[in-house]
Prior knowledge:
Structural class: alpha+beta
Amino acid sequence: MTTFPCFPSTWSRSKILLATALVLVAGVAFGAETPPPLPPLTTVSGSPRLPGKFVWADLVTDDVAAARKFYGGLFNWTFREAGIYTIASNDERPLCGIFRQAKARSRAEAKARWFGYLSVKNVEKASRAVTKAGGRVVVGPQKIPQRGEQAIFTDPEGVVFGVVRSSAGDPPDFLAEPGDWIWIQHLSRDAKKAAEFYHKIGGYDVVENDLKGGSDYVLVSDGYARAAMRTIRSGNPQVQPNWLPFVRVKNLGESLASTTKLGGAVQIAPKPELFDGKVAMISDPTGAAIGLMEWSSDELNRGVK
């Protein structure tokens, strides 16, 4: 495939096709000539930037209508269109976007997926750090009205992620409400190497985690745990490296029942040894994986200082 001759031989056909789709779709959605009218990340005057915090997410899928129906039914999200880009909100708070990739001949070739954007001080500097650390630039730095500047990359394992420097500052740290993002986890073939890569991009402190059922490493900024890095166990060959964002739900059992009714699937059911059975992984009808977390404590956002 001549479009990306610099991709190493370890890249699979599915990763090359996904990157191609992201270049074509995101290039249109976030092109300099006709950028979509994206909402600012915060409307609170004087909000500081919080480098390292994941502040936005996108879903790339071949069926936007099916995704809207599923997430609207499961999380009560509402939607509005901004050109070819769909913005999803929870309780009138914009929190993610959805855009379409062309339908591939097989689901394995260009799998639907979520990916997150982390806040950075300088997008150009982050772009240079990505390539120096072995990642790839998918969509270079773009200035977006009301939003700021952002870019999309892949890490050395081919996992898609974005960075953004918000012109309005970043959303403050607060306890997620049901339907909000509450956590994000990176599944990797080598969590230590992955943590080292993202440390170079986001300037994180990397904390080793030895808690039972926890992750191998935690990325920390400003005293807050921002993301977890977990090594994929050898017994799960079907699990591929990716970012897995989690949404807070009121009742995990009810949400899992709704998942199947709405056409999704439960990929990893709750396990007592994993956060007391309060987390699960599902996939939407288009194949994108997403996590669910039932949370009833105010401990989460006290940080790890």
